[in-house]
Specification:
By secondary structure, the chain is mainly α. The chain has three helices and two strands.
Length: about 130
């Protein structure tokens, strides 16, 4: 059972799954903006053009505030999701030590070019290098 839980944790916190989850949540929040844009701007404009409905200035002002509300909801949702992902990434990186990379290059003392650490002669200025 413990191995099963560890495998599920590795699966759920893998980058692909987290990216897909973020995409689904952001997509759902963005659909609210699109719906509000359609209901509050596009449909009233089409209704006025076709003569289907008449609107007053107070109706038009209400349409803008509903759309603004949808945009603010989207921004809040995106910010909360960003904070959650940041916390999850911090938790999953705990206990992982950064690998110390072995040095593969050095600087030539004569021409200051970057050369291989195994070089005995600089390929740029052809100076002989002392063993370090």
């Amino acid at each position: 059972m413990k191995k099963f839980i560890e495998e599920f944790k590795a699966f759920a916190l893998r980058g692909n799954v987290m990216d897909m989850a973020v995409g689904v949540i952001i997509g759902g929040a963005f659909s609210g903006i699109v719906t509000s844009l359609t209901d509050n701007f596009i449909n009233p404009i089409l209704n006025v053009i076709t003569g289907h409905a008449r609107y007053s200035w107070s109706d038009i002002a209400g349409f803008g505030s509903a759309f603004l509300s949808a945009v603010i909801n989207f921004i809040i949702m995106a910010f909360i999701l960003f904070c959650l992902i940041k916390i999850i990434n911090k938790i999953t990186s705990m206990g992982h030590k950064e690998e110390v990379k072995e040095k593969t290059t050095k600087t030539c003392p004569f021409c200051q070019s970057e050369i291989s650490i195994k070089a005995t002669r600089c390929p740029h200025c052809t100076s002989e290098l002392a063993d370090e």
